[in-house]
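EI: anyone free to look at a 158-residue chain?
SC: sure, send it
EI:
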Amino acid sequence: MPSTKRKKKPAAKKRPAKKSASATRKSRKQPETLRLRSVAPSLTVNSLDRSIAFYRDLLGFVQSDQWEMNGRVAGVELVAGNVRLMLMQDDFAKGRDRVKGVGTRLNLRTIQDVDAVAARITSQGGALTYPPRDMEWGERAFGVDDPDGFHLTILQVR
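SC: here you go
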């Protein structure tokens, strides 16, 4: 009777063991760099009611929270998608003529059609600082300023 020899299967390749969270932390550059998950800018505004109307009614944010001080609304949290924005009523302790918004631009990215968003804003009486256009880096964007002069660029992610 002929002998039957079984061929040995090649040894399975071993997968490297997953690093534990503590091992991952140890392998990161030390001192460890800052790692953030989100940002929620807080803007001090002259008229909270006017700013809420701009961000909520004109741009489409949704109010998710508010804070009161001495029985009056002093601030709100607004949400649009994953973006959070805080608006705080100026107490005018630094003067009523304090300029706001100078040198500040918020870049807001969306998957929505920015031409349609811009058209909705202008149809409701909003003014754009520049109309939708293709940017040099490939995104389509338009500009709008809030009532206190904070500059917003709304960009369409492609």
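EI: The CA atoms of residues 3 and 124 lie 89 Å apart.
SC: 👍
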